[in-house]
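Same chain as my last thread, 188 residues:
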Amino acid sequence: MGAPKLLLTIGGQTLLERALAATAAYPRLVVATPAVARALAHAPDLEVLVNDEPDRGMAHSLRLAAAAAPDGAALAVVLADTPFVDAELVRAVIAARGDADVAYPVRAGRPGHPVVFGPRPRRALAELADGDTLRALRSDPRWVRIEVPVDDDRPFVDVDTPADFEHAQRFEALESAPGQPSPERNAL
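reply #2:
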């Protein structure tokens, strides 16, 4: 994509800035590559954990975050490449978890982001192999799960390819058009 993905801009903010805005009400641990960590050098109220081995995958990043988070705390995983996960959605999923082990948004059976893991699944992160995604931990039958119903695309727009980035830019343009309902909002 020509630049570190999280430093790409949608709607006047980088993907990273969007994720930070969505989580501003909470204590934050940011697991970042060295390039992204440099962009956060002067960001207030963040604990930045440098992941020197990002090719080990999401499970490795999650283990870094879990090791740095306070014992017994839930871990809300907000991926910066899901640019339409906003503060309202983060707040709703965190509130819905209650005493459950895992909470996440769902539409028509499709799970989205963010995902909140309670203390029991956090401890199970050590069982995940490098390269694993959140799916294995989120779907583990040992956990009590709360699915938070949603009726729009925000939890499902993920920027992994140049085509995904173009889709996200179109999505943002439609979402920010004054007085215009977004036909893409319910398109997925």
